[in-house]
Amino acid sequence: MLAAGCAGSSVSGDKAGGTASHGPVILRLASTPGDLSDVPPVADFVRWVGELSHGGIRIEVVNQWGNYAPDAEVQVVRAVASGKADLGWAGSRVFDSIGLSGFGALSAPMLVDSYPLEEAVLANPIAPRLLDSLKGVGVTGVTMLPDVLRRPIGARRRLLSPSSWQDHSFGTYRSEVQGQAIRALGARPVVVFGPFRSHALKTGAIQGFELDFRRYDELGLEQAAPYVAANVALWPQVDVLFANPRRFSSLTGQQRAWLRQAAHEAGWSASELLLEDATFAGKACAAGARFALATAGNLAALRRSFSPLYRRLEQDARTKAFISRIERLKRLTGPGRALVIPAGCSSG
After folding, report:
1. CA angle centred on 324, ends 165 and 109, rounded to 5°
2. Which of 22, 101, 115, 255 could bridge 270 with an S-S bond, Cβ 3.0-4.6 Å?
3. What is the β-pairing status of strands 235-243 and 169-172?
């Protein structure tokens, strides 16, 4: 892991500082997971860049940037801003913790709670405005890719109502808004992920966490934390891709067009994301996960617990405007298709 972090901080001038006169343009992309298989939309972006440019642009992925530190995603943003990396990606969640308040609308709890709504939000003028705001942290926004919904998963009990969260230490990523949402339910947010999440579960340092079905199954967490609140969509993972401004402007118009087209091709549809959920929910069930559905009363109680947080969020005019627009889109798109719990997988 240390080797990956050190490699990310020493980029040769030819690769990151200017276009070589011969051979492909090489762009180094900083990424926090151990492998891009954790983030299929971003992996698709990398693949499409190579295909569309016919090898004229090659993206070298530097994995485990930040070595799973609590501020690893912030390190990615700073590395791209400083030119240590040409490209990077981070979850939209992190930007509200580094001064970009509008991003809090995407992390507002239980607001973006279906794939049709997520698709609509990112097709809406919200996404371009948020991408433009990235210049405030020294990077150029490239795209925002829809990704999977995140749900609460418990090691000891089902997290279906506010009372079930009380006195829990709950694993999450760095995000001011998501941390406040966890506190609103009487739990304590602990920024821990990757191998440190698994260790925290084993030692009892956390009793639950937020995650999607794909990572939950691929990390093999079903035995340590079997209780999945299947219909409590806390927030979406939105993958934000960004570039070093100087490096991006040094590319030709055609090269920038390839990057933008690759970003368009890499976007997953609502139906593809729902199918992904269903596939990995089935695998998680077979591995020992137990799914439960919150009642209408449970869901209403959770939303009531978040009311003070929404009032704080809406004190920022930009965030309030985005939340209002998302709520209007939510009424238009409807609830979307419900996830079907695999047979024999209910926790009762």
Report:
1. 15
2. 115
3. unpaired
One CATH from 3.40.190.170, 3.30.70.120, 3.30.160.670, 3.90.1150.10 for 2-333: 3.40.190.170
Tokens of 13: 């001038």
pLDDT tens digits for range 156-208: 999 999 999 999 999 999 999 999 999 999 999 999 999 999 999 999 999 99
pTM: 0.91
Q: Are 112 and 235 in contact (CB under 8 A)?
A: yes
- Sorted by sequence, the CB contacts under 8 Å of residue 155 that are 6+ apart come out as 201, 206, 207, 208, 224, 225, 226, 227
275 membership: H or E segment, kind and range: helix 270-286
Residue ranges of the chain with per-residue pLDDT less than 70: 1-22, 347-348
Quickly tell me which residue has 């933008």 as its tokens. Answer: 260
Q: What is the pLDDT of residue 347?
A: 61
Long-range contacts for 180-189 (Cβ within 8 Å, ≥24 apart)? Answer: 180/309, 180/312, 181/107, 181/108, 181/109, 181/234, 181/235, 181/306, 181/309, 184/109, 184/305, 184/306, 184/308, 184/309, 185/302, 185/305, 186/162
